[in-house]
Automatic annotation (TrEMBL):
The lineage of its organism: Bacteria, Pseudomonadati, Pseudomonadota, Betaproteobacteria, Burkholderiales. It holds the Pfam family DAO. This is NAD(P)/FAD-dependent oxidoreductase. The keyword Flavoprotein applies. Its cofactor is FAD. It comes from Allofranklinella schreckenbergeri.
């Protein structure tokens, strides 16, 4: 049996849900942890701009990190929410074929889900689906009972509390300028933008959109290990008034995303999105009101009675993609010393959906990577 050395200091860069979960995991493992965050608060970028869905693990290629960590992370997250009294609900989700031609896609989705270990999907006829959701139009559907929703802000607050209870801390307004991994003692030197230098045995780059630029500013990390950054903007429209659905409604997936679907928050308000727009910058968060009719047209494929005037511009998020237009969706990258050769350094690239669902499983994998 290998005895794991417990380094004295671990620095996690980024206080989104992944960085907080990773900092918590390292602190619970006995490390002295500081989470460095550029912003004034936790989770202000990707983590606070999602649909807050707990995914089942249905869509991802069998054998991928996304598939494995989503299925594992889902169960970990539900257990964590129960233990910490974090608001969440297993509402269930209907994936709907709105034309006869799409029914074969549902079968393929079901087969992939089963290969990923998701064995609770239930095929529904049109009548069965409409018995559950009378406002729904479809030819057939798949019911995913383990899909749910969560209060992501309460989750991040709980993760931060666990981190701090275990002796860790968060340093806000602490943007990292560079990382130097070339020192012969194996310790990493981080320089913040105000000139402060911090030494650490462990560094986890969980900076989201900033992860790739920071990797490019990491001395000792070969360029071949750094992917290209792509930015995918997803807009959301909210629905004024009550929604006629009690479950999440998803069309069959489309190129680049899961289609403009309906999700519900814990207060019961419906929102639709995200769409897929390739943009140049991660700060392009404008929601274009002129897109309302395009959204309405997509939504009417499964909810024909929608009144477009009830759609209001909501919010937008940017996915930290590492694959470009027309490419197959890439897998998560959890890159440790076995890839780049730098002990104690883990880079997280392309942690988009289902990152929220997978956060505790990703954190566990990061904690293992720095001690391998």
């Amino acid at each position: 049996m290998n005895t794991l050395r417990k380094p004295q200091t671990a620095l996690v860069i980024g206080a989104g849900v992944i960085g907080l979960a990773t900092g918590r995991a390292l602190a619970l493992a006995g490390h002295e942890v500081i989470v460095l965050e550029t912003a004034r608060a936790a989770g202000t970028q990707t983590s606070s701009r999602s649909s807050e869905v707990i995914h089942a693990g249905i869509y991802y290629p069998p054998g991928s990190l996304k598939a494995a960590l989503c299925v594992q992370g889902k169960e970990m997250l539900y257990e964590y929410c129960a233990a910490r009294h974090i608001a969440c609900q297993r509402l269930g989700k209907l994936i709907v074929a709105t034309t006869p031609a799409q029914q074969a896609q549902l079968e393929a989705i079901a087969q992939r889900a089963y290969a990923n270990g998701v064995d609770d999907l239930q095929p529904l006829t049109q009548a069965q689906a409409q018995a559950l959701e009378p406002a729904l139009h479809c030819e057939s559907a798949l019911l995913s009972p383990s899909t749910g929703i969560i209060d992501s802000h309460a989750l991040m607050l709980a993760l931060r509390g666990d981190l701090e209870d275990a002796g860790g801390m968060i340093a806000f307004i602490s943007p990292v300028q560079s990382i130097d991994c070339t020192h012969p003692d194996g310790r990493k030197r981080l320089r913040t933008e105000d000139g402060t230098v911090i030494e650490a045995d462990i560094v986890v780059n969980a900076a989201g959109h900033g992860a790739i630029p920071l990797a490019q500013r990491t001395q000792g990390l070969a360029a071949q290990h750094i992917p290209k950054a792509w930015f995918v903007k997803g807009q959301y429209f909210t629905l004024s008034g009550p929604a006629p659905f009690s479950r999440l409604i998803y069309p069959v997936p489309q190129t680049g995303g899961l289609g403009i679907h309906l999700t519900l928050d814990l207060g019961g308000q419906a929102r639709f999105g995200p769409d897929v727009q390739w943009v140049e910058h991660a700060d392009d968060l404008h929601v274009d009101p002129a897109q309302r009719e395009r959204f309405a047209q997509a939504i009417r494929s499964y909810w024909p009675a929608l009144d477009a005037q009830r759609l209001q511009p909501g919010y937008a998020g940017i996915r930290p993609n590492i694959g470009g237009p027309g490419e197959a969706a890439p897998d998560f990258i959890i890159q440790g010393a076995s890839v780049h050769g730098i002990a104690g350094l883990v880079n997280l690239f392309g942690i988009e959906s289902p990152g929220l669902t997978s956060c505790l499983a990703i954190a566990q994998r990061c904690a293992q990577a720095v001690t391998d």
